[in-house]
Known about the structure:
4-stranded antiparallel beta sheet, ATP binding, P-loop_NTPase
Amino acid sequence: RGKTDPVLQLEKINVTFDGFRALTDLSLSIGVGELRCVIGPNGAGKTTLMDVITGKTQPDNGRIFYDQDIDLRTLSPVEIARAGIGRKFQKPTVFEALTVVENLEIAQKCDKSVWHSLRAKLNGEQRDRISEVLQLLRLTEFSKRSAGLLSHGQKQFLEIGMLLVQEPHLLLLDEPAAGLTDAETDYIAELFRRLAGKHSLMVVEHDMGFVESIADHVTVLHQGQVLAEGSLRDVQANEQVIDVYLGR
Ligand code: ADP
């Protein structure tokens, strides 16, 4: 795969809920190694977009290609995860009674067939990966702490780590900066910039300051459609975007 090839390509996706159009003819393409932000007001369809990519919601029509030729509409949510698409929801969902490192171990085992894997010992390479991820998420010194005792921000970081140990190609992150301290937000921005290239990232975010600190490319959704797309600067100068989202 070349740098300019899309890792994900949505073509004319429509989603309706009881006649209500949540996504209308939505087309979107994310390049390999790209860090894309998706912004837009409440109800714009951002969560629905994530749900469609991960197989949680089936679109009425349209096509979704992953890695050029894998048609995601033919795969189950589990198969989509296995194909290398990891999603982080807005609220952290770590195992609170387990320690930090146990959470990472479980996450690393669970992408393979469950019983076989849960009983298997981690190999050296997998342990190294966990150490690396603990460091990356600044959790090394907390690795033996129960996850329930972590701060909100640390739980968010741990959950990103639980995705990273599975070596996803494409990371979908729903408002990862929500509830983080300023220092944590700065660090997560730095982390995302570092992950881009090796991984592709799609970040749904409300906090424009955070978007400014990470994104080279932004998609603005409004009423289930792409209102604007391009560099952050172009999008911020777009009259329609200012009207419906940024305000004057
Ligand atoms: P966002 O994440 O940008 O706030 P959503 O994707 O959650 O937007 O929602 C888009 C629109 O679709 C909203 O008007 C919402 O009320 C509607 N919607 C989302 N999910 C459902 C559902 N399961 N049933 C009915 N309407 C829904």
